Amino acid sequence: MKPLARNEQITVEQVRGETLVYDLRNRKAHCLNAAVSAVWRACDGQTSIQGIAEHVRRELDRPLDEAFVETALAELSRAGLLETGPEEAGRVRSHLTRRQVSAGAAILLPLIATIAVPKPAAAASGAAPNPGGVPL
After folding, report:
1. How far apart (Å, rounded) are the C-alpha atoms in residues 117 and 135?
2. What does the DSSP assignment read for 71-127?
3. Helix ranges (DSSP H) in 7-97
């Protein structure tokens, strides 16, 4: 598998070591931690999982292996940030072993935080609930 990062209908911004990705197609915003961001940037459709792991190890100067990359790829696939087809995404492992976590990978566990972004008209409506009538 040589994953390819999606680059259509997205906006990308680097902020304090994390990557913010706004998906225009699905109206979702994703925050990729440094490790997942490094994996995503290495997904050029030409590089194998082993090659991505080596790239991320060099970039982050951390002992990360292919299982880590596979977990990050599974998260990226679920977030819709890869061009891989569903049959390929289904083959990606989505877990780390306890040994890998206890060996210090917990600091860099693959992590993507996702939020749904309202349509501009809904966001501007001012119809947000205000429990208790507390002035904002």
Report:
1. 24
2. HHHHHHHHTT-B---HHHHTTS-----HHHHHTTGGGG---EEEEE---HHHHTS--
3. 34-42, 49-60, 66-78, 86-89
User: Do the Cβ atoms of 26 and 112 come closer than 8 Å?
Assistant: no
The rounded distance, in Å, linking the Cα atoms of 119 and 58 is 40
Give the mean pLDDT of 25-43: 94
What's the whole-model pTM score?
0.71
Number of Cβ atoms within 10 Å of the Cβ of 32? 26
C-beta of residue 32 within 8 angstroms of C-beta of residue 18: yes
Alpha-carbon span 60 to 123, nearest angstrom? 37
* Tokens standing for residue 32: 């990729």
- Single-letter amino acid, residue 33: N
Output the average pLDDT for the chain. Answer: 79
